[in-house]
Specification:
Layout (H helix, E strand, L loop, with lengths): L9 E9 L2 E9 L6 H15 L7 H7 L4 E3 L2 H16 L9 H7 L13 H10 L6 E4 L2 E4 L12 H15 L5 E5 L2 E5 L8 E7 L9 E8 L1 E8 L4 E4 L2 E4 L14 E8 L2 H12 L3 H9 L4 E8 L5 E5 L1 H6 L7
Antiparallel strand pairs: 1-2, 2-6, 3-5, 4-5, 6-7, 7-10, 8-9, 10-13, 11-12, 13-14, 14-15
Helix pairs in contact: 1-6, 3-7, 6-7
């Protein structure tokens, strides 16, 4: 390099494991600005706050605690406050108190029971443990109505984690990046050559529970993309598949024909929080909900009454498609 000549922009990549899945960071800079150890440290702190699989995490202590109140850290407080907001906006379809129902259905067992729970037990759980009116957060103190109430933040905490790492990258002066954690993505562009960031959108093609594949690519300057789908986690009772997304109003897994919902938002916490709730809405209602929200777009794959798998999307999402090809 000639004296006085600036270093060229280079692409740096970091990969690792966290929160029971993988992550990848890709960014453009003249020199390395962040390390794998820094990202691991950030995600580990969040895990110590909201991981159900770590017995020493704050959320595990709250769920096991027979006392009515526990002090939470800033990460958990931020996620809970956003959860209350989305719960209100979706008329209760997004609900973090479904942990006991998830366990009842067998989603935390290595092998589930060979029959689904009976209606009596589901009704009892709905009455005693389900509903965000059964928890309260004031400043950094989280309380619950009774000892049976437990929370599960998996439907939003991963999106929050993506935002925390993305904000860290921006604070380090990185202007062009993609950060992905377990399929949740936040990105900012353009790349140094002026091209936009392009992200693949996944979903199954013919069945609710088949392995997903990439169906489209979207392009945007800045924002987050998350996907929720019944195909990603399910249990089987007597040959019938039950998806992991449970309706907090009925106590039963999703059964409305919606297979997957991909959401675009400015922040990953929003995209992640809304995608599960949209899965539980009829398709037309989901589209109307998204259209009424600012800075929110959606792509929905669903099964028609005749069994045909089709897709639909908001006009804003269509504008982001690199190669429109909807059936």
């Amino acid at each position: 390099m000639t004296l006085g000549q600036e270093s060229p922009m280079r692409e740096f990549k970091i990969r690792g494991r966290a929160q029971g899945t993988t992550y990848s960071a890709s960014y453009f800079a003249k020199d390395s600005l962040i390390t794998k150890a820094q990202i691991d440290s950030i995600l580990n702190v969040i895990d110590l706050s909201m991981s159900l699989y770590r017995p020493n995490s704050t959320i595990s202590q709250f769920n096991a605690n027979k006392k009515a109140k526990i002090k939470v850290d800033g990460h958990m407080a931020a996620v809970l406050n956003k959860s209350f907001q989305i719960n209100k906006e979706t008329d209760g379809l997004f609900d973090v108190t479904i942990q006991p129902l998830m366990r009842l259905w067998g989603f935390y067992r290595e092998q589930g029971q060979n029959y689904p729970p009976d209606t009596t037990r589901i009704s009892a759980f709905l009455q005693s443990t389900t509903g965000m009116d059964k928890i309260k957060i004031r400043k950094h103190w989280l309380s619950k109505k009774n000892n049976h109430v437990e929370i599960d933040l998996n439907g939003i905490a991963q999106g929050y984690s993506v935002d925390v790492v993305a904000d860290f990258m921006q604070a380090k002066g990185i202007a062009s990046y993609v950060f992905e954690l377990g399929g949740e993505i936040r990105a900012k562009g353009p790349k140094p050559d002026g091209s936009t960031i392009k992200i693949g959108v996944e979903g199954p093609s013919t069945d609710d529970f088949e392995k997903a594949n990439f169906k489209h690519r979207v392009s945007f300057t800045e924002g987050a993309i998350t996907t929720s789908g019944s195909y990603s986690n399910y249990i089987v009772y007597k040959g019938k598949n039950y998806g992991h997304i449970i309706n907090p109003k009925t106590g039963y897994p999703i059964n409305n024909g919606v297979i997957s919902v991909t959401v675009y938002a400015k922040k990953a916490i929003d995209a992640d929080g809304y995608d599960n709730a949209l899965m539980l809405m009829p398709v037309e209602k989901a589209l109307e909900f998204v259209k009424a929200k600012r800075d929110l777009e959606a792509y929905i794959i669903y099964k028609k009454a005749d069994g045909t798998v089709v897709d639909t999307l908001t006009s804003g999402f269509k504008k982001m498609l690199v190669s429109p090809g909807l059936r």
